[in-house]
Amino acid sequence: MDKVIYLDNAATTKTRPEVVEAMLPYFTEYYGNPSSVYEFSTPVKKAVAQAREILAASIGAKPNEIYFTAGGSEGDNWAIKATADAYQNKGKHIITSRVEHHAVLHTCQYLEQHGFEVTYLDVDEHGVVKLEDLKAAIRPDTILITIMFANNEIGTIQPVKEIGQIAREHGILFHTDAVQAYGHVPVNVDEYCIDMLSTSGHKINGPKGIGFLYIRTGVKIRSFVHGGAQERKRRAGTENVPGIVGYGEAAKLAMATMEERAAKESSLRDYLMERIMKEVPYTRINGDCKMRLPNNANFAFQFIEGESLLIMLDGKGICGSSGSACTSGSLDPSHVLLAIGLPHEIAHGSLRLTLSEENTREEMDYVVENIKAIVQRLRDMSPLYEDFVKNQAKQ
Ligand SMILES: *Cc1c(COP(=O)(O)O)cnc(C)c1O
């Protein structure tokens, strides 16, 4: 098999050909600035408005509640920093969880250096926030609860509806990072009492560098990028028109195909997990089994380094990801795996595989065979495994 088997769709996805096709005219033909008054820009304005309508409808929002951003990281930064700024007279306390994406965690840490207090909620062994802990953490000066919809490493989906209700009852704003959930599971801002929600185009087969932040009407939120009057004076800068058009198209396709895609991906994913669990001993599955993104599988293989496994899988044309080291090259295991209680040595042996609808059963078979062989080879070189086998023989 000399083609690449791409199983890292939580990192980014392939831009669909329909999306690229929808975008192209907005580079070459309809390149006018949507803020200009002449007629040449009219189709450009219309295309931006149409994408905004599609995206708004996809989460049950109004078009004027959608603010285009450069992706998920910007949406998270904006929601959290601008809420802190606008509501600091009410209080300086923020609640989040230990398993958030770094775009949320590092923003919260930044605010801690600027006089805000942050509570990082623990999660259970499946990665789920405990509602009792959330209620107990709420204080009179709490201004924001920011908890992700679904986790990017272990795929666990949070009880978002309940979290939203608790926030609403206490008059606290609720932001959710829905980058991994959007386009994969149904998301509705009214049903879930969500005040702010961030998404990203490249996680749903759209282009990179485009996303949106939903901000509920009435939420007092400051401009994030100062300059021109774009995005109702809240986010300056000439609109990324091709990106916006592409994102609209990607969202339209994602919404239309969600159910069948989820069914296909989860059945392949379940097949992969079943085979791995049956055929590779001393392995565990990370994340919740039921409340889980349809395309996410996350394993921890005892006695091995996830990084070595990844490199050897790469040698076989298989793209996966490991939670064991972050992009900075640090050797600390993933904060998410530590938060669900994995000991360091087990967290180090983790592997995340995230599927797309293009994957096949033959690919899963190829992946399982390679994982089996590589894990065994790595274990055969591991002194920890050798000790373990010796001790077992003694018993
Ligand atoms: C990918 C991701 C982000 C960052 O989105 P970008 O568009 O790459 O900035 C934020 N949160 C989660 C949960 C993600 O998976």
Shape: globular
Distance between the termini: 43 Å
Radius of gyration in whole Å, from Cα?
A: 22 Å
Beta-strand percentage range: 5-15%
Major β-sheet annotation: 7 strands, mixed
How many helices? Answer: 14
Helicity level, as a percent range? 40-55%
Class by alpha and beta content: alpha/beta
Number of strands: 12
Task: Offer a concise description of the structure.
With 395 residues, the chain is an alpha/beta fold. It has helices spanning 17-23, 25-28, 42-58, 72-87, 102-112, 131-137, 160-169, 230-233, 241-279, 306-315, 335-339, 344-347, 361-380, 383-394; strands at residues 5-6, 66-69, 93-97, 117-121, 142-146, 173-177, 196-198, 211-215, 283-285, 296-301, 318-319, 350-354. Strand 5 (142-146), helix 7 (160-169) and strand 6 (173-177) form a beta-alpha-beta unit.
What would you note in describing this structure?
With 395 residues, this protein is of the alpha/beta class. Helices cover 42% and strands 13% of the residues. The chain is built from 14 helices and 12 strands. The chain has a 7-stranded mixed sheet with strand order 2-8-7-6-5-3-4, sandwiched between helices. Strands 9-10-12 form a 3-stranded antiparallel sheet. β3, α5 and β4 form a beta-alpha-beta unit. The chain is globular and about 80 Å long. 47% of the residues are buried. The structure holds pyridoxal-5'-phosphate.
